[in-house]
UniProtKB/TrEMBL annotation:
Residues 5-354 form the Isopropylmalate dehydrogenase-like domain. The lineage of its organism: Bacteria, Pseudomonadati, Pseudomonadota, Betaproteobacteria, Burkholderiales. InterPro entries: ICDH/IPMDH (IPR050501), IsoCit/isopropylmalate_DH_CS (IPR019818), IsoPropMal-DH-like_dom (IPR024084), TTC_DH (IPR011829). Its cofactor is Mn(2+); Mg(2+). Keywords: Manganese, Metal-binding, NAD, Oxidoreductase. It is an enzyme of class 1 (oxidoreductase). Belongs to the isocitrate and isopropylmalate dehydrogenases family. The keyword Manganese applies. It catalyses: (R)-malate + NAD(+) = pyruvate + CO2 + NADH. This is D-malate dehydrogenase (decarboxylating). SUPFAM superfamilies: Isocitrate/Isopropylmalate dehydrogenase-like. It comes from Paenalcaligenes hermetiae. Pfam families: Iso_dh. Its EC number is 1.1.1.83.
Length: 358
Protein backbone atom coordinates (compact mmCIF):
# COMPACT_ATOMS: atom_id res chain seq x y z
CA UNK A 1 0.00 0.00 0.00
CA UNK A 2 1.20 3.51 -0.85
CA UNK A 3 2.57 5.72 1.92
CA UNK A 4 0.88 9.11 1.70
CA UNK A 5 3.02 12.10 2.60
CA UNK A 6 1.05 14.68 4.60
CA UNK A 7 2.32 18.20 5.29
CA UNK A 8 0.95 19.36 8.64
CA UNK A 9 0.62 23.11 9.20
CA UNK A 10 -1.33 24.10 12.29
CA UNK A 11 -0.91 27.85 11.69
CA UNK A 12 -2.13 30.08 14.48
CA UNK A 13 -4.67 30.42 17.29
CA UNK A 14 -7.03 27.50 17.70
CA UNK A 15 -5.41 25.86 14.66
CA UNK A 16 -2.62 24.81 17.03
CA UNK A 17 -5.15 23.28 19.44
CA UNK A 18 -7.41 21.42 17.01
CA UNK A 19 -4.63 19.96 14.86
CA UNK A 20 -3.32 17.46 17.47
CA UNK A 21 -6.85 16.08 17.80
CA UNK A 22 -7.12 15.47 14.06
CA UNK A 23 -3.72 13.73 14.15
CA UNK A 24 -4.83 11.64 17.12
CA UNK A 25 -7.93 10.44 15.24
CA UNK A 26 -5.95 9.87 12.02
CA UNK A 27 -3.39 7.81 13.96
CA UNK A 28 -6.13 5.57 15.35
CA UNK A 29 -8.05 5.12 12.12
CA UNK A 30 -4.99 4.58 9.92
CA UNK A 31 -3.71 1.86 12.28
CA UNK A 32 -7.10 0.15 12.28
CA UNK A 33 -7.37 0.10 8.47
CA UNK A 34 -3.70 -0.34 7.58
CA UNK A 35 -3.44 3.02 5.84
CA UNK A 36 0.09 4.42 5.69
CA UNK A 37 0.30 8.14 6.45
CA UNK A 38 3.66 9.87 6.95
CA UNK A 39 3.61 13.36 8.46
CA UNK A 40 5.99 16.27 8.25
CA UNK A 41 5.27 19.31 10.41
CA UNK A 42 5.85 22.88 9.22
CA UNK A 43 5.85 25.98 11.44
CA UNK A 44 4.95 28.20 8.44
CA UNK A 45 1.76 30.29 8.10
CA UNK A 46 2.06 31.50 11.66
CA UNK A 47 2.71 34.82 13.39
CA UNK A 48 5.85 33.31 14.98
CA UNK A 49 7.26 32.42 11.60
CA UNK A 50 6.36 35.89 10.31
CA UNK A 51 8.13 37.57 13.23
CA UNK A 52 11.29 35.56 12.59
CA UNK A 53 11.34 35.78 8.79
CA UNK A 54 9.21 38.77 7.78
CA UNK A 55 7.03 36.53 5.59
CA UNK A 56 4.54 33.71 6.12
CA UNK A 57 6.33 31.10 4.00
CA UNK A 58 9.93 30.49 2.87
CA UNK A 59 10.78 31.43 -0.72
CA UNK A 60 11.00 27.79 -1.78
CA UNK A 61 7.68 26.69 -0.23
CA UNK A 62 6.35 25.48 -3.59
CA UNK A 63 9.28 23.11 -4.22
CA UNK A 64 9.23 21.88 -0.62
CA UNK A 65 5.50 21.06 -0.66
CA UNK A 66 4.77 19.95 -4.20
CA UNK A 67 5.83 16.33 -3.56
CA UNK A 68 3.30 15.89 -0.75
CA UNK A 69 0.00 14.10 -1.29
CA UNK A 70 -1.96 16.49 0.91
CA UNK A 71 -1.67 19.44 3.27
CA UNK A 72 -3.52 19.37 6.56
CA UNK A 73 -4.00 22.98 7.57
CA UNK A 74 -5.27 24.52 10.81
CA UNK A 75 -6.00 28.22 10.69
CA UNK A 76 -4.28 31.39 9.61
CA UNK A 77 -4.51 34.84 11.18
CA UNK A 78 -3.07 36.60 14.21
CA UNK A 79 -3.94 40.25 13.68
CA UNK A 80 -2.01 41.46 16.75
CA UNK A 81 1.19 40.59 14.85
CA UNK A 82 0.34 40.37 11.13
CA UNK A 83 -2.48 42.25 9.38
CA UNK A 84 -5.07 39.69 8.22
CA UNK A 85 -4.73 40.47 4.51
CA UNK A 86 -0.96 39.87 4.72
CA UNK A 87 -1.25 36.53 6.55
CA UNK A 88 -4.01 35.27 4.24
CA UNK A 89 -2.37 36.32 0.96
CA UNK A 90 1.04 35.29 2.30
CA UNK A 91 0.06 31.66 2.90
CA UNK A 92 -3.37 30.07 2.41
CA UNK A 93 -4.28 31.93 -0.76
CA UNK A 94 -0.85 31.16 -2.24
CA UNK A 95 -1.45 27.44 -1.71
CA UNK A 96 -4.91 27.59 -3.29
CA UNK A 97 -3.70 29.53 -6.32
CA UNK A 98 -0.25 28.01 -6.98
CA UNK A 99 -1.41 24.45 -6.35
CA UNK A 100 -4.48 25.16 -8.50
CA UNK A 101 -6.89 24.02 -5.80
CA UNK A 102 -9.77 25.44 -7.78
CA UNK A 103 -12.53 23.57 -5.94
CA UNK A 104 -13.39 24.30 -2.33
CA UNK A 105 -15.90 21.72 -1.08
CA UNK A 106 -17.70 22.78 2.08
CA UNK A 107 -20.39 20.37 3.35
CA UNK A 108 -23.22 21.79 5.46
CA UNK A 109 -25.11 19.21 7.50
CA UNK A 110 -27.39 19.33 10.51
CA UNK A 111 -25.87 16.66 12.73
CA UNK A 112 -27.62 14.62 15.41
CA UNK A 113 -27.37 16.26 18.82
CA UNK A 114 -26.43 19.70 17.50
CA UNK A 115 -29.01 22.29 18.54
CA UNK A 116 -30.28 24.00 15.38
CA UNK A 117 -31.02 27.74 15.69
CA UNK A 118 -33.71 27.38 13.00
CA UNK A 119 -37.16 26.21 14.13
CA UNK A 120 -38.46 22.68 13.51
CA UNK A 121 -35.39 21.21 11.83
CA UNK A 122 -34.13 17.71 12.47
CA UNK A 123 -30.99 15.89 11.29
CA UNK A 124 -31.40 15.02 7.63
CA UNK A 125 -33.44 18.15 6.86
CA UNK A 126 -30.33 20.20 6.10
CA UNK A 127 -27.69 18.41 4.06
CA UNK A 128 -26.03 20.26 1.23
CA UNK A 129 -22.58 21.11 -0.04
CA UNK A 130 -21.21 24.49 -1.07
CA UNK A 131 -18.84 24.26 -4.03
CA UNK A 132 -16.79 27.45 -3.87
CA UNK A 133 -14.65 28.67 -6.77
CA UNK A 134 -11.23 28.95 -5.16
CA UNK A 135 -8.64 30.58 -7.40
CA UNK A 136 -10.09 33.72 -9.02
CA UNK A 137 -13.29 35.80 -8.97
CA UNK A 138 -13.27 38.49 -6.31
CA UNK A 139 -10.00 37.14 -4.75
CA UNK A 140 -7.50 38.32 -7.33
CA UNK A 141 -5.65 41.12 -5.58
CA UNK A 142 -5.66 43.28 -8.69
CA UNK A 143 -6.12 46.98 -8.26
CA UNK A 144 -4.46 49.76 -6.37
CA UNK A 145 -4.64 53.13 -4.69
CA UNK A 146 -3.82 56.52 -6.10
CA UNK A 147 -3.60 59.88 -4.38
CA UNK A 148 -3.17 57.89 -1.17
CA UNK A 149 -3.89 59.80 2.03
CA UNK A 150 -5.37 62.80 0.24
CA UNK A 151 -8.95 63.83 -0.36
CA UNK A 152 -8.54 62.67 -3.96
CA UNK A 153 -7.80 59.10 -2.79
CA UNK A 154 -9.08 56.42 -5.21
CA UNK A 155 -9.12 52.69 -4.49
CA UNK A 156 -9.82 50.06 -7.15
CA UNK A 157 -10.15 46.29 -6.66
CA UNK A 158 -10.87 44.14 -9.68
CA UNK A 159 -12.56 40.76 -10.02
CA UNK A 160 -11.52 38.24 -12.63
CA UNK A 161 -13.78 35.59 -14.16
CA UNK A 162 -12.14 33.45 -16.84
CA UNK A 163 -13.98 30.98 -19.06
CA UNK A 164 -11.66 28.20 -17.85
CA UNK A 165 -12.15 29.16 -14.21
CA UNK A 166 -15.92 29.45 -14.38
CA UNK A 167 -16.45 26.37 -16.55
CA UNK A 168 -14.33 24.07 -14.44
CA UNK A 169 -16.07 24.91 -11.17
CA UNK A 170 -19.51 24.63 -12.78
CA UNK A 171 -18.59 21.28 -14.36
CA UNK A 172 -17.36 19.97 -11.02
CA UNK A 173 -20.49 21.18 -9.26
CA UNK A 174 -22.78 19.55 -11.84
CA UNK A 175 -20.85 16.30 -11.40
CA UNK A 176 -21.20 16.48 -7.61
CA UNK A 177 -24.95 17.12 -8.06
CA UNK A 178 -25.20 14.21 -10.48
CA UNK A 179 -23.64 11.89 -7.89
CA UNK A 180 -26.18 12.77 -5.18
CA UNK A 181 -29.74 11.41 -4.88
CA UNK A 182 -31.48 14.80 -5.23
CA UNK A 183 -29.44 15.81 -8.32
CA UNK A 184 -30.11 19.48 -7.76
CA UNK A 185 -27.73 22.40 -8.34
CA UNK A 186 -28.31 25.98 -7.18
CA UNK A 187 -26.05 28.78 -8.36
CA UNK A 188 -25.50 32.07 -6.53
CA UNK A 189 -24.79 35.27 -8.44
CA UNK A 190 -25.81 38.93 -8.34
CA UNK A 191 -26.53 39.54 -11.98
CA UNK A 192 -28.68 42.62 -11.54
CA UNK A 193 -26.01 44.53 -9.59
CA UNK A 194 -22.73 43.13 -10.96
CA UNK A 195 -23.97 43.35 -14.50
CA UNK A 196 -20.85 42.16 -16.37
CA UNK A 197 -19.24 39.27 -14.49
CA UNK A 198 -22.34 37.68 -13.01
CA UNK A 199 -24.45 37.46 -16.19
CA UNK A 200 -21.35 35.80 -17.70
CA UNK A 201 -21.39 33.19 -14.91
CA UNK A 202 -25.14 32.65 -15.54
CA UNK A 203 -24.51 32.26 -19.27
CA UNK A 204 -21.84 29.61 -18.68
CA UNK A 205 -24.15 27.89 -16.17
CA UNK A 206 -26.88 27.60 -18.78
CA UNK A 207 -24.41 26.22 -21.35
CA UNK A 208 -23.01 23.70 -18.86
CA UNK A 209 -26.48 22.61 -17.75
CA UNK A 210 -27.21 21.33 -21.24
CA UNK A 211 -24.59 18.60 -20.65
CA UNK A 212 -26.31 17.42 -17.46
CA UNK A 213 -29.98 16.90 -18.40
CA UNK A 214 -30.54 14.71 -15.33
CA UNK A 215 -29.58 17.56 -12.95
CA UNK A 216 -32.29 20.03 -11.95
CA UNK A 217 -30.80 23.49 -11.60
CA UNK A 218 -31.76 27.01 -10.60
CA UNK A 219 -30.08 30.34 -10.03
CA UNK A 220 -30.52 32.80 -7.17
CA UNK A 221 -29.32 36.29 -6.43
CA UNK A 222 -26.92 36.02 -3.51
CA UNK A 223 -28.97 38.31 -1.28
CA UNK A 224 -32.16 36.26 -1.50
CA UNK A 225 -30.14 33.04 -1.33
CA UNK A 226 -28.84 34.04 2.11
CA UNK A 227 -32.47 34.55 3.20
CA UNK A 228 -33.39 31.14 1.77
CA UNK A 229 -30.51 29.53 3.69
CA UNK A 230 -32.19 30.73 6.87
CA UNK A 231 -35.86 30.33 5.91
CA UNK A 232 -35.80 27.12 3.88
CA UNK A 233 -32.39 25.42 3.81
CA UNK A 234 -34.02 22.06 2.96
CA UNK A 235 -34.33 23.19 -0.66
CA UNK A 236 -30.55 23.08 -1.23
CA UNK A 237 -28.50 20.10 -2.37
CA UNK A 238 -25.40 21.45 -4.14
CA UNK A 239 -24.71 25.19 -4.16
CA UNK A 240 -22.11 26.64 -6.50
CA UNK A 241 -20.75 30.14 -6.06
CA UNK A 242 -17.85 32.46 -6.77
CA UNK A 243 -14.92 32.76 -4.38
CA UNK A 244 -16.34 35.51 -2.15
CA UNK A 245 -19.99 34.46 -2.28
CA UNK A 246 -18.97 30.85 -1.60
CA UNK A 247 -16.92 31.95 1.40
CA UNK A 248 -19.84 33.85 2.90
CA UNK A 249 -22.36 31.07 2.21
CA UNK A 250 -20.10 28.46 3.75
CA UNK A 251 -20.01 30.34 7.07
CA UNK A 252 -23.72 31.12 6.98
CA UNK A 253 -24.66 27.50 6.22
CA UNK A 254 -22.90 26.00 9.27
CA UNK A 255 -24.24 28.82 11.46
CA UNK A 256 -27.74 27.72 10.37
CA UNK A 257 -26.90 24.18 11.46
CA UNK A 258 -25.67 25.17 14.91
CA UNK A 259 -21.97 26.10 14.82
CA UNK A 260 -19.11 26.90 12.46
CA UNK A 261 -17.05 24.81 14.90
CA UNK A 262 -17.94 21.64 13.01
CA UNK A 263 -17.67 22.87 9.40
CA UNK A 264 -14.93 21.19 7.29
CA UNK A 265 -13.49 22.01 3.91
CA UNK A 266 -11.41 20.48 1.14
CA UNK A 267 -9.42 22.67 -1.26
CA UNK A 268 -9.02 20.33 -4.18
CA UNK A 269 -6.84 20.07 -7.22
CA UNK A 270 -9.06 17.38 -8.74
CA UNK A 271 -6.44 16.33 -11.31
CA UNK A 272 -3.99 15.57 -8.45
CA UNK A 273 -1.15 17.41 -10.19
CA UNK A 274 -0.55 19.23 -6.90
CA UNK A 275 -1.35 18.52 -3.24
CA UNK A 276 -4.88 19.32 -2.09
CA UNK A 277 -5.41 21.10 1.22
CA UNK A 278 -7.84 20.21 4.00
CA UNK A 279 -8.80 22.74 6.67
CA UNK A 280 -11.68 23.72 8.91
CA UNK A 281 -13.88 26.53 7.59
CA UNK A 282 -13.25 28.47 10.80
CA UNK A 283 -10.27 30.76 11.29
CA UNK A 284 -7.81 31.11 14.15
CA UNK A 285 -10.39 32.59 16.61
CA UNK A 286 -7.97 34.70 18.72
CA UNK A 287 -10.78 35.36 21.24
CA UNK A 288 -10.85 31.73 22.40
CA UNK A 289 -7.30 30.67 21.50
CA UNK A 290 -5.04 29.19 24.17
CA UNK A 291 -7.90 27.96 26.36
CA UNK A 292 -8.31 24.43 24.99
CA UNK A 293 -12.04 25.03 24.44
CA UNK A 294 -12.26 25.14 20.63
CA UNK A 295 -14.36 22.51 18.90
CA UNK A 296 -11.99 20.12 17.08
CA UNK A 297 -14.76 18.52 14.98
CA UNK A 298 -14.25 20.76 11.92
CA UNK A 299 -10.55 19.83 11.86
CA UNK A 300 -11.27 16.11 12.36
CA UNK A 301 -13.99 16.14 9.69
CA UNK A 302 -11.55 17.89 7.32
CA UNK A 303 -9.04 15.10 8.02
CA UNK A 304 -11.78 12.58 7.16
CA UNK A 305 -12.30 14.35 3.82
CA UNK A 306 -8.56 14.06 3.24
CA UNK A 307 -8.62 10.30 3.86
CA UNK A 308 -11.54 9.91 1.44
CA UNK A 309 -9.81 12.00 -1.24
CA UNK A 310 -6.50 10.11 -0.86
CA UNK A 311 -8.30 6.79 -1.23
CA UNK A 312 -10.05 7.52 -4.54
CA UNK A 313 -12.89 5.19 -3.61
CA UNK A 314 -10.71 2.26 -2.47
CA UNK A 315 -12.10 0.09 0.32
CA UNK A 316 -9.83 0.72 3.32
CA UNK A 317 -9.96 4.48 2.87
CA UNK A 318 -13.72 4.52 2.41
CA UNK A 319 -14.10 2.39 5.54
CA UNK A 320 -11.77 4.73 7.44
CA UNK A 321 -13.78 7.75 6.29
CA UNK A 322 -17.03 6.11 7.37
CA UNK A 323 -15.52 5.25 10.77
CA UNK A 324 -14.39 8.83 11.29
CA UNK A 325 -17.78 10.26 10.33
CA UNK A 326 -19.65 7.79 12.54
CA UNK A 327 -17.40 8.63 15.48
CA UNK A 328 -17.98 12.36 14.92
CA UNK A 329 -21.77 11.85 14.73
CA UNK A 330 -21.73 9.66 17.82
CA UNK A 331 -19.72 12.22 19.77
CA UNK A 332 -21.95 15.12 18.69
CA UNK A 333 -25.06 13.15 19.63
CA UNK A 334 -23.86 11.86 23.00
CA UNK A 335 -21.05 14.13 24.06
CA UNK A 336 -18.62 15.24 25.28
CA UNK A 337 -19.29 18.68 23.79
CA UNK A 338 -17.36 21.93 23.65
CA UNK A 339 -18.79 25.31 24.72
CA UNK A 340 -20.05 26.28 21.24
CA UNK A 341 -22.48 23.35 21.59
CA UNK A 342 -23.44 24.18 25.16
CA UNK A 343 -20.96 21.74 26.76
CA UNK A 344 -17.98 22.08 29.05
CA UNK A 345 -15.57 19.62 27.45
CA UNK A 346 -12.09 20.63 26.35
CA UNK A 347 -10.74 20.34 22.82
CA UNK A 348 -8.58 17.44 24.00
CA UNK A 349 -11.49 15.58 25.60
CA UNK A 350 -13.55 15.74 22.41
CA UNK A 351 -10.60 14.56 20.31
CA UNK A 352 -9.92 11.70 22.72
CA UNK A 353 -13.60 10.70 22.72
CA UNK A 354 -13.77 10.60 18.91
CA UNK A 355 -10.55 8.58 18.70
CA UNK A 356 -11.87 6.16 21.35
CA UNK A 357 -15.07 5.57 19.35
CA UNK A 358 -13.13 4.33 16.30
N1 LIG B 1 -9.00 27.41 8.37
C1 LIG B 1 -9.41 28.46 7.56
C2 LIG B 1 -8.80 29.78 7.87
O1 LIG B 1 -7.82 29.89 8.56
N2 LIG B 1 -9.42 30.78 7.31
C3 LIG B 1 -9.00 32.12 7.47
C4 LIG B 1 -9.66 32.99 6.46
O2 LIG B 1 -9.84 34.16 6.73
N3 LIG B 1 -10.02 32.47 5.32
C5 LIG B 1 -10.62 33.21 4.29
C6 LIG B 1 -10.93 32.35 3.11
O3 LIG B 1 -11.04 31.14 3.23
O4 LIG B 1 -11.09 32.90 2.04
Amino acid sequence: MKTHKIAVMAGDGIGVEVMPEALRVLETVSKKHGIALEYETFDWSSADYYQKHGQMLPDDWFEQLRGFDAILFGAVGWPAVVPDHISLWGSLLKFRREFDQYINMRPVRLMPGVPCPLANKKPGDIDFVVVRENTEGEYTNLGGRIFEGTEREVVIQESVFTRTGVDRVLKYAFEVAQSRPAKHLSSATKSNGLAISMPYWDERLEQMAAQYPDVRWDKHHIDIMTARFVLNPEQFDVVVASNLFGDILSDLGPACTGTVGIAPSANLNPERRFPSLFEPVHGSAPDIAGKNIANPVAMIWSAAMMVEFLGQGQAPYQAAYTDMMQAIEHCLAQGPRTADLGGKATTTEVGQAIAAMI
